[in-house]
Automatic annotation (TrEMBL):
GO biological-process terms attached to the record: phosphorelay signal transduction system; regulation of DNA-templated transcription
Pfam families in alphabetical order: GerE (PF00196), Response_reg (PF00072)
Protein's recorded name: Response regulator transcription factor
Organism (species): Streptomyces triculaminicus
Annotated HTH luxR-type domain residues: 152-217
Entries under PROSITE patterns matching the protein: HTH_LUXR_1, HTH_LUXR_2, RESPONSE_REGULATORY
Keywords of this entry: DNA-binding, Phosphoprotein, Transcription, Transcription regulation
InterPro entries: CheY-like_superfamily (IPR011006), NreC/VraR/RcsB-like_REC (IPR058245), Sig_transdc_resp-reg_receiver (IPR001789), Tscrpt_reg_LuxR_C (IPR000792), WalR-like (IPR039420)
Molecular function GO labels: DNA binding
Lineage: Bacteria, Bacillati, Actinomycetota, Actinomycetes, Kitasatosporales
Amino acid sequence: MTIKVIIVDDQAMVRAGFAALLAAQSDIDVVGDAADGRQGVELSRRAHPDVVLMDVRMPEMDGLEAARRLLDPPPGVVHRPKVLMLTTFDVDDYVYEALRAGASGFLLKDAPPADLISAVRVVAAGEALLAPSVTRRLIADFAARPAPRRKGAVRLNGLTPRETEVLELIARGLSNQEIAAELVLAEQTVKTHIGRVLSKLSLRDRAQAVIFAYESGLVTPGE
């Protein structure tokens, strides 16, 4: 199945470079590009991409607001693509808010070409993706906050003990395969548990699951 992608970035050279790289892949089809967030939202409404590569800092409308509009569309708009945020900075004020808005992850613009291609495939498959430096920033951000008041405790009570274990391991950065090995389960069983966790907690993907686990106090930095 071909992955349809649009690229939203205010630098023409960046758009052209990413488009050439991705279009060379047999399973990826670049269906358009836009120079700012507003154009990106309009293009996405027309082109119905699977993945939107979204720059963070742009004129007219920044990537955060554009991601919000794509991931929380108005009534009548059914299509909701996966959004992969692109940034030049590994420490960016938008990281946390973009993930809260539903972005599937962050990737640095200077990442190797193979990482960009892999990121598109990972996000299209419904997984979350964070550059290691971005993950460190998120954990540092949570570590600097006051102890959580476990505002998600009520929602956590809706999970089975096994589902709670799975959520904790997701938050610690383990892959499905690693979770399966840790809990001595089949990988397909782990996927089933993850699906139930996301459904019960009304979360879009693993990125939001990680945030929820920290905010609820299930996981604390440094443990």
